[in-house]
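The material for today's practical consists of a large collection of protein records. There is nothing in a record beyond a sequence line and a structure line. Backbone structure tokens are a discrete shorthand for how the chain folds in space. Nothing more is needed to start thinking about how sequence determines fold. As an example, a complete record with its sequence and its structure tokens follows.
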Amino acid sequence: MKNTAACAKKFRSLLKKLEAGPEPVPAGKGDPVSTLIYSCLLWEATVTDADAAFQSIIKGVVDFNELRVLLPHDMIEIMGEEYPHADERSRRLRAILRDIYVRAHEVSLSDVDELGKRDTKVYLESLEGMVPFVSSRLQLLHYEGKLVPVDEQLRGLLIDEGAVDQSASVTEITNWIGRQLKSGEELEVAGKLQAWSDQEIQKQRRNAARRVSRKKPVRTTKKTASKKTTTKKASTTTRSRKKTTGRKAAH
């Protein structure tokens, strides 16, 4: 990544300013597949979004194998049509679960337990539909990866703060942040950055809602419309009388 020295100072300064947030923890019963699904829901969304959607999935399917075979529109119906990036998210999640099933003959990541860190990273990142945020979050919570999950919305915030170079990709930023931290800082920093990202997204949504509210046309009630029509008719009649009076005067 470019401008690493300057960015490192601003990144450290940013971390000092940010409030602490809840540290990420494995989802559901603590198995990697639950965390994978939750992480897919959290990608480009908020913790509040992901919590609600994950609970809907748990209640809506018998097991994760059933989730694997759901069509995208069925998955969207469970998450909610207004969920951020609902179509892309459902297709990616379905592709990931399908690829896991093809490799392991079940919806399980137990095979990964036998791999070393490097091979685990390769395995997870090579899954069809996988994104860096989900892969790094899985590695952080289950496979001792020294990574902090970054998605595009967090990348944009870090760029705005000058904490990373604007040319850096999500993957570059993820790896770079890992190198800036002391061992054991990852969970704390991940919690801070996620909480910050959530706050900014909520602000953006509130501002967007206000803009939409201002653009809504003012509804005219029947009573008001009736008054306007009556006034218009009266004005027309008055003009007609004036014209008639003018003609008579001319004669």
User: Anything to note?
Assistant: The two ends are 93 Å apart (CA to CA). Residues 242-251 have pLDDT under 50 and may be disordered. The chain is about 70% helix and 0% strand. The chain has two domains: 4-204, 227-251.
